[in-house]
């Protein structure tokens, strides 16, 4: 596998990352008001994660690793590379149940939905009630 480069996405490349979401994660679409971090190999985006600011917190969302690059540690490395972003504000994520351990390895801890701040609690319940099996998580600096 070629060298993987991790970096914040240049906003001019938003259409490129959205093509990847359209192909591999149609429910996810990057928006201009999000901070987007990517992993690239041979100048092609192979993974992406977005951070959405919601008042005084942020939500890690839209983690995507294209299928042929999965299970190679890229998601964890992308989270590590985006550490400066994660540390800007309290950071939550709503992890699919099967990805709980991946996020735990990266410093997130599972929390009760009732512990979520009100500004994202409603969003969590809306997603969960639409049939998605999600787990609320919070980034804790010393948890890994």
Assign the CATH superfamily.
Gcn5-related N-acetyltransferase (GNAT)
Helicity level: 25-40%
Q: Report the CATH C-level class.
A: Alpha Beta
- Quote the CATH topology: Aminopeptidase
Compressed to H and E, one letter per element, the order equals EHEEEHHEHEHE
Proportion in β-strands: 25-35%
Shape: globular
CATH hierarchy: architecture: 3-Layer(aba) Sandwich
Query: How is the main sheet built?
Result: 7 strands, mixed
Strand order of the largest sheet: 1-2-3-4-5-7-6
Mean pLDDT: 93
**Spatial extent as radius of gyration:** 14 Å
SS content category: alpha+beta
Total domain count: 1
How many runs of DSSP E, i.e. beta strands?
7
Show unreliable segments: none
How would you sum up this structure in a few lines?
The chain has 144 residues and is α+β, with helices and mostly antiparallel strands. Helices cover 28% and strands 33% of the residues.
Description of the structure:
The protein is α+β, with helices and mostly antiparallel strands and 144 residues long. It has a single domain, classed as Aminopeptidase (3-Layer(aba) Sandwich), CATH 3.40.630.30. The protein has helices spanning 14-24, 74-81, 83-86, 100-105, 118-129, and strands at 5-8, 35-41, 44-54, 57-65, 90-96, 108-110, 134-139. Strands 1-2-3-4-5-7-6 form a seven-stranded mixed sheet, with helices on both faces. The protein is globular, with a radius of gyration of 14 Å. The two termini are 27 Å apart.
